[in-house]
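Task card 7
Instruction: Convert sequence to structure tokens.
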Amino acid sequence: MRRAWLTAWLVLLVCAVDAVAQPAQTFVLGGPTRPWRGGGLGTDPVFVLNAFSGEVELTNSPDGSIDYDYSPGWIAPLRFDEGENIAARVLVSGKVTAPTSGRIPPSQLEGVVNGDHELAFERKPTLFEPRVTTRGIWLILDFGSPVGVSRVRFYPRNTVVETPSAPFHNDFLRGYEVWINEELDSFTTPDVLVARNAENEEPIVDIAVPSQYARYVKIKSLVDQPFEIDEVEVYGTGFLRRGTYYTDIIDMGDRAAIGAVDWVEDALGTPEFSSLSVRVRTGLDDTPLVFREFIPGVLPGEGTYVEVTRQQYAELVPTSRGGIIEDTDHWSPWFAASNGDLIAAPNPRRYVQFQFEFNGDLFAARRVDEMSFAYIQPPIAGRLVAEVFPRLAEAEKAATFRYAVRLFQVGGAVRGFDRIEVDTGVAASAVREVKLNGEPYDFNVDFIESDGFGISFAQVRDEGALLELTFDLPIFRFGTTFSGRAYTSRAPEVPQAFTPGDAVQFEPADIAELSGLSVAIPKPQIGKLVGDIAIDTSIFTPNGDGVNDAWSVFFNVLQLTRPAPVQLEIYDVAGRRLGALLDEERGIGPVQLAWDGTLDGVRLLPGTYVWVLRVRANAFEERHMGTLGIAY
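Output:
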């Protein structure tokens, strides 16, 4: 019995070790195994069409705006060939109306775009309606969103297609106007007239339209004669302005840590006219929606909601349907994703979904070949909570920071980590005093660079394990965030990002509710783009004798989140600009210059000059100025 128990224990131990030792796997969407059209071979996305009736649509492109065939293997916004009649799209994402015609059978309205040549939109007398208004009748195709249009054609029955049972080829529209509108019809976006003919003699009206976007195509009757329209054909061109693609709900099989997400992106046409944005969300179950049954209470207005399946919801009587809502308990919000970066959505989780939003112009668009990411199971940790202390430090002064990372397993096996990286924005001067659970812990400094540092150590894996370290560096901008991530050497391609939070109480002044990874600067320093300006002398003598030959200036650029224009210019006392010692984009950090008194190779004459330092950030410019003297 004891031997059997020992054998079982050893098997479990080996399995656990094997799981931790598993290398990273790669998920690829867009290749032959998981084509874009299949969505990733997961659970189809569900989009609510009518919450009251429970009507939903299962699709990867809810508005049919994605093209899978224009570039095989890629996805892009839907593109139309100029010989393609796209009028039937109004039945998918728009509608057909005749607002000045009274009650018209829906079949007649649908019949003008669905290719049924036995059915037509008619304005002709009948036994039940002997007097019919024909002048001023509008027939409007609303595509729901702008589409590229190059041609409009309309005609009665028995013309383009022979219909002996409906020989009404002479009942064509003998006077018309054709209007289009790119957006909603309003004062700011009026309809545009593209054709007018008050004495039409052609049964088949065929109008070339300069290639442009149109949401609405409108036909207006100008005559009193009865008429019919069998089909309105709208010929498309170019790309849809917007296209949206959702992956399936991707099931990793168990909770997984997802590494950096990469996709292959290409610009079609002029790159400046198109863009692509990608978002991601993660979940704990396979549906981001909650279908609710309403169970009435004893008193009017009382009741409770119970979650049911999508199929059960559709079978409920209308009064018991409690609505369809987003599942915010088990699914994260959408987070922006950057190509080549870790996702910001909660991680690790079992389920993940991506959204691709294409924006472009008629002949400019983006396309995506494939998307991929590496993942590991089990993850490095269930959660890695990190914080920095202190959370207030003066700019331009060296400061010492303490950093803590606590590991939480959260419901399953974890791999642990043996390396971390911390983003600092500037180079640290030292990394020291690494501790594990309060005891000194051996470590190696892997690198210290201008934007962060990395250290490695023996594996940290136990529940609640606390890693602490100390580092020194100057702080340059408001809201500096010391984000970081952990690695395991067995799968270094999949790091796990730290979650800001309360990892440890560094000292009594460390308030848990304020714990995080951001460090601010004192209020009087907020808003400054330039720190103290140090000038070694106001008068210099550039005569080549090696003494006082240069004018030296030192300052720090502060608080920029991205490089911005920095200029240091020289003026004469009359205000004339003579030249620039510095004119380039700089990020946060120190700037040091030594000037020898020449501009463009020409030595300035002795005298007094004015220096002006400018730093621009968005619409704000900070300016400093002073005087200097040249003597020989």
